[in-house]
Amino acid sequence: MARTVQLTRVVANSRAAFLSGKTRPLAWRMSQLENLLKMLDENEASICEALGKDLRKPKQECISLEIEFLRNDVRGCINNIQDWMADYYVEKNIVTMMDTTLIHYDPLGVVLIMGAWNYPIQLSLGPLGGAISAGNCVIIKPSELAPATSSIIATLIPRYLDKECFQVVEGGIAETTELLEERFDHIFFTGSGAVGKIVREAANKHLTPVTLELGGKSPVYIDSSADLDITARRLLWAKCINLGQTCIAPDYVLCSKEVEVKLVEKMRSLIGEWYGIDPQKSPNLCRIINNRNWDRLNNLLKSTKGKVEIGGDTDPNDLYIAPTVITGVGYDEPVMLDEIFGPILPIVSVNSVDEAVQFINKREKPLTLYVFSSDKAAQDAFKTSTSSGSMVVNDAIVHLSVETLPFGGVGASGMGGYHGKYTFTTF
Length: 427
Description:
Helices cover 44% and strands 14% of the residues.
């Protein structure tokens, strides 16, 4: 009961701060963005240390995929906020010819950002720059599954940002459930589809709009026209960063048997080149977040009817699962039912573009679709005959860095989008 009263007070104080009007001036928004950038610059080592404790994340990944990613986003907000805030004048009709018609971007109010554990800095603070730019008060709920990172967020935010307008709530399921009882003007959630449904149901009680950044099984199609040397490198890198715990990681491959044989050998060679004879000893691989997720992934390996071509090694004491490639995978076995979210890559045999398109369309709409092919007709077939949050041709994951593109899912992979100005307009 005391906790509920405390959370209610947190939200009420944020709303009072918003209604005071202090978040509306450009100068205030700019100062908060500059302080957020300062926070990242002055605490890089501490943030990397926290990410290392939670995920044993290599320093290069900490900086490039978490801290520098955020820096770029905040810099973009600083450089563009004045243009974003400006009224946008629209075309008139004959009835309003003598009037002024415009769109004015008004802040929503008090918004809740619910981060995820796999990129606990990027996904907890990534939407924050846009929310600040739009003039909101923000309550941040980091994931309790990454406790070291959650703690450093809770420590740093009040040191650098306005204490009345930006607050961090830590805790687990009980605290999150109570927090979702409160009324917000927008809820931005990143995580699983199962929890996303709970968030949306809670939001519906107050008719609160939501952005749901979820996930799903992002397929990869590869045909014989692709440059397999480049394909293997880009595919394997995208699968192995964060040890596969990435919402847009390649989930499974669709290709012919001929392509499969060549691809497997190239990936086998690359794993040795990148991670050595024993990848478990490599400093460049993360670890699985916790025992529950390790058990889930280990069970997927045990249950497969396919052939483990590469990897398959596991160590529960180290929360380690080797980068693993499986061929001969059945359509309906466990590894093909839900998002893998780990370093396991099944390969399913298909004989044509049409067969691959049909395979994808029989399943939930993915967050991302990857096509490796030099055949323009094949590329167009996936663009026009499938539906996904995004589609990337002859590369993987890099679209996340393009702030002029909205990032988000469709159907079961999410709703709404963000990055760059799209985050500003969301809030």
